[in-house]
Amino acid sequence: MTSSNGPSADASARPGAGGVGGSGTVADRNLLPDRVWTLPNGLSVVRLLGVPLFLWLLLGPEADGWAVVVLMVAGATDWADGKLARSLGQSSRLGALLDPAADRLYIVATLIAFVLRDVVPLWLVAALVGRELVLGLALLVLRAHGYPPLQVHYLGKAATFILLYAFPLLLLADGDGPVAAVVAPVAWALTVWGSALYLLAGVLYVVQVVGLVRAERAGGSPP
């Protein structure tokens, strides 16, 4: 899931900082090794390259079966790159950027494709994409105050995991027949659950950013 290529051990404590992961630290990617050619990074790149393929399969020939395969491969590589980064000691700055970027691209791309195909309602897409826009602004605020991105909250990791596995089920449920009827309740339960956690994690991230900025202003000194 998000930031799996950047272990929480590589974080720098900042005065007044309460990391989103609840550890009281702010993640500093600059402390990670400056590696490029690693196996985890390669898996993240493969996952990124799968985004346009997934969109084409879903919106072009509407080959939903193959689109599900791409999503399943993305989920598997998402788990594998974090596991390998930890076990092989191949955490890197690039990996800490690629991994969450791939997750967010898949989620946003899937939601846009789903709303164009009438698989999910527009309000759900607006809520989740709006969450990404708000977090983007929060990151700009952090940068303006000299802070690196905060550690990813475990709720955000769990939400991403749930959504990436709910999306293939939504595709399977988008049809007729007994399989769709059986899968639909599970798919929507996971989608609602994952979306709620995803939004909650976003709220917690913004709360942490506001807390950092207020603490800095109260201290009267730069970070």
UniProtKB/TrEMBL annotation:
TM spans (from-to): 122-142, 154-173, 179-207
InterPro entries: CDP-alcohol_PTase-I, CDP-OH_P_trans, CDP-OH_PTrfase_TM_dom, CDP_ALCOHOL_P_TRANSF_CS, Phosphatidylglycerol_P_synth
UniProt main location, coarse: membrane
Subcellular location: Membrane
Pfam family, one: CDP-OH_P_transf
Residues of the signal peptide: none
Entry keyword set: Lipid biosynthesis, Lipid metabolism, Membrane, Phospholipid biosynthesis, Phospholipid metabolism, Transferase, Transmembrane, Transmembrane helix
Membrane topology type: Multi-pass membrane protein
GO CC terms in record: membrane
Location of the region described as Disordered in the Swiss-Prot/TrEMBL record: 1-22
GO molecular function: CDP-diacylglycerol-glycerol-3-phosphate 3-phosphatidyltransferase activity
Family according to the record: Belongs to the CDP-alcohol phosphatidyltransferase class-I family.
Listed name of the protein: CDP-diacylglycerol--glycerol-3-phosphate 3-phosphatidyltransferase
Lineage: Bacteria, Bacillati, Actinomycetota, Actinomycetes, Geodermatophilales
